[in-house]
Structures are given as structure tokens and as C-alpha cells.
Design brief:
Layout (H helix, E strand, L loop, with lengths): L2 H40 L3 H29 L1 H20 L4 H29 L2 H31 L5 H4 L1 H15 L14 H24 L4 H23 L13 H30 L5 H6 L2 H21 L2 H19 L10 H4 L1 H24 L6 H38 L7 H11 L13 H40 L17
Length: 520
Amino acid sequence: MSPNREKSTERWVLAATVLASSMAFIDQSALTIALPAIQSDLHATGSQLLWFVGGYTLMLAALILLGGTLGDRIGRRRVFFFGILVFTAASTACAAAPSAGFLLVGRLVQGIGGAMMIPGSLSIISTVFPAERRGRAIGTWSAATTLTTAGGPIIGGVLAQAGLWRGVFLINLPLGLAAMAALLSRVPDDAPRADGKGIDLAGSALITLSLAALAFGFIDGPNFGFGSASVIAAFVIGAAALALFILVEHLKPEPMVPLAVFRNITFTGANLLTLFLYGALSAFSFFLPLALVQAQGYSESAAGLTMLPFVVLLAGLSRWAGRLSDRIGPRVPLVVGPLLVGAGFLVCSTAAPTLGAAGYWSTYFPGIILFGVGMGVTVAPLTTTVMTALDRGLTGTASGINNAVSRLAGVLAVAILGALAILHFTGYVLEGASGAGLTSSEHARLVGQLRNLGNAQVPRGLPAASTETLARLFRAGFLDTFRLVLRICAALSWASALLAALLVRRPRPEAPFSYDDQPA
């Protein structure tokens, strides 16, 4: 291939991967801001909101390793194209959703497409670009995805405030079509790896079943009761499927998750840190827009701007933190960073009730600054630790496992803290309403509304005094619930700092981990 044609191919590869990745980043960050509008328009319960976010992340966490493996086995471009196609089609279906149930199915299918698409982006770049231009290409991709992540909440807020939340999903249609056109017309097909190794379908099925059952148990436990037969059965099935998954991965010669890598203490510590810290981040990202719009009086567009300082600090500090980690090792940044993140959550948990965004600077802004500095100090050293803890031949495995762990953290945190939020909010309001003189039928209608969390509406037909009391209780109860979630997020962040102090070591370049070093 001539140099000019080679560079032309590289430009089209970069364009296709940036466009496709932008879909996933914009969709996820914009959706959180649009959740209050979606809940109001589709009359979704609090549990359904949890599923809108958790269902997508569940499929992504369960299948993302399979997506990477499929790319190696049958061709990266083919799997990447298929992922874009599925994600784009599912996005179109989400935009047309007539009900909460329909939207949930669309989000699940989006997760399947994302699991096929996301691993292919950097894999294709690494394959097509030569070593001397690869770093610049990855840097361009990273910068573009950072910008789209920052722009997502702003776009979501503007669209939601205009009553156009469906546009959050329709944005993906032109991006997906352009990415697919670039792949088909300009990017050459790559040869699949013909090494005779199979695909771990059994492992994928078991981990998907396990996560789905556990998520159902936590998310729908408040609705059915944690002592109900269906919820208990979900936990039993989830635990059994997880045990079988571990057994299958142990026995298979080519497992999806090679368990031997967890003998490396630093790699295990980095992934445990990821589980706790990114779990806290996912819960915060889910609940913050709901609290701002439904309880603090923010408009959707103002809520979309609140996290902009975080994104700016993350982007601005990451390179400096990476260089610092190279000089002094990753342990200090991975202890200090999560400590600051936890402090940021704690500061936000003290925010007083407001009547709108005018109070942002004295309430949430200081905590978000701490949060942004902490994540800026953490992300680059954490990525470096994950990628250097194992032998160079296992960097793909290390990246895939850590990516899956971060998604798994989101599934578990949103499900567990979401269930806790519904229970706490219900208990707070019912305790405060005990003296309101409600009849048994009015009490039953009130309980039915409490599943909606911040979007709960006072049942019709109540006396004016009772209506006013309940409206105050709803707002105060949701803010109190949000504060509880933030304190738990702070504890999770500080636990990740402790894990870094105890488990993370500076990798020794002369003696990296490999399978050959392990006992049979």
C-alpha cells in the first residue's frame, strides 16, 4: 500500500472509531440528565429508571469481553460494524419508545451493540496505525471522547428542557450511519485469527444470567419485598450462576476471564479499587441530575452544566498525574485521589436545599471541584497500573478485564444503592406522614407513588393541609435520600484508597507477571 493511501486509510479509521465511540459516550452522559424528563413523560417508576441505566450497563459488563474475543476470532472490522449497526438501530427504537418497558428493551439491545463496538475502537486503531503514529492517534481518539463526554450532559439538558429528550437517542443515527459508511468504503477488512481457539459462550451466558438475576433482585426487591419468592429465587440463581461461571473459567483452556491473572496482587488491587471507586461514580452520576431537577429546582440545561468543572479538571490533570505516577509510582496518587473524591462526595452531601441553580456555587461546586481533582489524580495512574501489572502479552486481557469491572461496578452500585434509596425514601415519607390523618386507601395510594422517588406526586383528593405536608415531605425525603447515597459513595471511595495503600505496588519492569511464573 502506498504511503498516501495508507495515511488516507488511517484517517478514515480514526474518523470511524471516533464517530462510533462518540455515540456511546454522548448517549450515556446525556441520558442521565434527561432521566427526569423521561420519567415524567413515560410515567416510569424509580425501579424502571434504575433499569434504564443498569440494563444497558449490565449487557455491556457481561458481554464486553466476548466482544473483544469475537473481534479477534472473526475480524475486528466485522464485529465493530455489527456493533455500530445494533447500537444505531436500538437507539432509533429508544427514540420512538411509547412506554417505559419498550425503552428498557431498547437499552438492553444498545448494551449488546456497545459490547461489540467499544472493544473494537482502540483495537482497530492499534492494528492499523504503525507504532510511530499510534500514540498520536490514540491521543486524538481520547481527546475526542473527552469532548463528547463533556458535551453529552449539556446536549441532554438542552434537549430535555425543550421537551425533546428523544433527541438524545436520535443523535446516534447520523453518527452511526457515518461510521458504518466510513468502515465499509474506506477501511479494509482484517483477517480473523485462525488459531483454532474457541469462543467462551458458556462463560458469557453464565455471567449475563448472574448479573441479570442479581440486578433484578436488588432493583425490584423494594417493589416485591426482599422476602418474596421471586426475589429470593433471583438471588439464588444469580449466586449459582456466578459460582458456575468461576468454575467454567477455571476449567476452560481458553477462558473469557483467565483467573490466574488475579494471583498478581497489584492487578487484583487495581481492579478492586476500580470496583469501589467507579461504583461510587456511577451512583453519583445517576442520582445527581434527579436531585438537582426534582428536588433542588434546577432546569435540565443548568443540571447539564454542573459537572463541567469535573470534566475540565479530569482532562487537565490526567497527563500530569500520569507523569507523576511514572516518577514516584502509582500508590500515592491512587491513595490521594480517591481520598479527595470521597471528600467531594461528603461536601456535596452537606448541600442545603435551594430554589434553583443560583445556589450552585456555595453548595455543589466546591464538592465537584474536589471530585474532579481526585479523579484527575486517579485515572491515569490507575490505567497505567492495570496495563503494566501483567506481562506485555496480556495487556489486552488486562484492559478488557478492567473495563468489564468498571461496568460491573456501575451495575451493582446503581442496583444496590437504588434499592436502598427507594427503601429509605419510602420510610422517610411514611414516618413523616404518620400524623397526617390519611385513610387506608389514601395511604395505599401514597405508597404506590413512593416507588417514583423524586417524581412522586401527591395523591389527588387529599385535604389541602395534607397535600402541602406531603409535598414538603417528598422534597425533604428525596434530598435526605440523596445525602445518604453520597455518604455511602464517600465510604466506597475511601475504601478504594485503603485498597490502593494495601495492595498496589510499583511494577518491576524486569519481572512482570506472566502465566509462566505461576505454579501448575
